[in-house]
Amino acid sequence: EPGISVLHRWSRPSEERIFSNPDFVDNKDNRYLPCLSWGWALVLGGGNVATPILARAWGCCIQLLQASFPTLEGVAPEPETIHWPAFGIHDEFDSSAPVVSLEWLGERSLVYLTVTNELIVADTVMMTLLERLDLSGLKLVYAEFSLSRAADNERRKDNGGPLCTTFQNSVRTSDNRLLILCQEEVKSVSILGAKRRIAALEQDGEWLEALALALDHYENTIKSQEDRRRDPEGKRDLSKHPEFANIRRSEDEEWIAKLLIRYLNLAVENAPEPSSRPSTPERSSSKATGRLDLAQSHFQMLAGVCIEFCVVTRRLDLLFGPVFRRFHSVGFLPVFLDVLEPYVLNDKLDYIAPEAMAYFVEHCKATNGIATVERCLLHMDVTIMDFDTILSLLRKNEMYSALCYVFSHGLDDFITPLEILLERIFDGADEGKVLAKRRPDGVPQSQFERYGYKAILYLQHCFNGQGFPEKTPLKPDDKLKSLRPQILRFLNQEQYSPSRTVKKHGQGLKAFGHRTLRYPYTHILLMVDTRATLDTISLALDAPDADFAEPDSAFESIGGWEVEVGEDARTEQSETSDPVRSPDRQNIISMLSSIILPDDDTTSKPMEGLSNLNQSPRAVEAFLDFMAKYLLSGVVRANKSVTYMILERMATRYSRANEPEARQAAQEETIELLTALPRNAYDPDQVLKLVEAAGIHRAALTLHQQGASSWHEGVDHMDRRSHHFRSVIDCYLEDADPLFRKEVFAYAKKECASDVNENDSKSNETPHSTSLRKALCSKMPDLVNLDPILSAQLVAEIFIEDIDEVVNSLVADDGGAAQFQFLNAIISGDLAKVDAVAGPVLNANLTMDHHQVYLSLMAKLHPDMVYEYLSTHDNYRAEESLKLCQQYEIADASAYLLERMGNVSSALQLILQTLEGRMMGLKRTIRGMGAEFYRSNASRQFLSDWNKEESKVTEQQQKQEREVDRVKRILVVALDICERNSGTSTSCSEHGSQLWFNVLDRLINAKGFLRLSKEQPAHAKVMAGVLSQLLQLTMQRMVSSVPLPDLVRKVTTDHSGSRLGELREMVESLLSTYGFEVDVFRGSVKVMHDDVHAMEREHRRLKLKGSVVTSITQVPLREKGAAAGRYGSQKGRVLLLGERGDASFADGGKMKANAVATVGLGGALNRLRSRRAVRNENTISDKTTWDRAGDMMTVSERLYNAGESSEAAEYGERLVGVLGDAENFGYFR
Question: Within 10 A of 1078 (CB to CB), how many other CB atoms are there?
Answer without folding.
Answer: 11
